[in-house]
Amino acid sequence: MIAYIEAYRDQFGVEPICAALAETDGGFITARGYRAAKTRPASTRMLRDQELGEVISRLHADNYGVYGVRKMHALLRRKGWLLGRDQTGRIMRQQGLHGVRRGKRIFTTRPDPAGQRPADLVQRRFVAARPNRLWVADLTFVPTWSGMAYVAFVTDVFSRRIVGWSVRSTMTTEALPLEALQMATWNRGELSGLTHHSDRGSQYVSLRYTDTLAELGIAGSVGSVGDSYDNALAETINGLYKTELIRQRRPWKTVEQVELATLEYVWWFNHRRLHSELSYRTPIEVEAAYYEASTSTEEPDGSLEPA
């Protein structure tokens, strides 16, 4: 009510506005009450809200402006701010802050009818007992002013960590998904017992890609044609990337600009982004906790199912 009067007082005057508002269901303030409210010292709650509003606005901006109430509440508690989720939501509304919403998913892969296709070893069970047990991979694209940028990700199912990625102006196997795979294998080292799952896009069922998996001792697995559920986790990673980075900062001018932004995003995604599926922890924290626990307990049995 006070904010409304502030906005229109120069145009209509305080008394006429209060008189008009008195005829509505919510009209309760008088001109005298308005002036009293303007001169009244700020309450403890108001001062607290102002302090928290500054903190929340900064944290929201530091995390690509994508956090909604749940993740912001979890982040505040990690930072030592003890407040309720409803209070977090109220202050975010006061600051005009909200989480991003997922857009429409677009299919980007094309099956090769003549290609040999490995079996589906995952059967939609996107769980793993330890790191480097199950990876999922997929492609997406980003329109730029200088042409299309194609992006490939490889994600570790156990921790949701992006372990390999590539951004190129072409979708060929060697330039895009194979480069992401090579980054993943270089980063992770030990690959025994690893399964690599993708959709049936021609890049992933090509001889070059499947031969590389075999040379590395990685078991290849693919889902069915045009079925996002058979590669749901990889589709989710693509969707988060498009929602949290690409749509937030468009338009994009060059492929190189997308590549640099993707580099920064992947670091944030792995080291700082809170994942609700990981009990609001980061992928790095989940892996660190696993390796710390494994030094004093027996190793998992190696199945795809959680131990």
TrEMBL record:
Which InterPro entries does the UniProt record give? Answer: HTH-like_dom, Integrase_cat-core, RNaseH-like_sf, RNaseH_sf, Transpos_IS3, Transposase_IS3/IS150/IS904
Q: What does the entry give for GO biological process? A: DNA integration
Q: Which GO terms describe its molecular function?
A: nucleic acid binding
What Pfam families does the database record attribute to this sequence?
HTH_21, rve, rve_2
Sequence ranges assigned to domain Integrase catalytic in this UniProt record: 127-291
- Relate the protein's function as given in its record: Involved in the transposition of the insertion sequence.
Q: What is this protein called?
A: Transposase InsO family protein
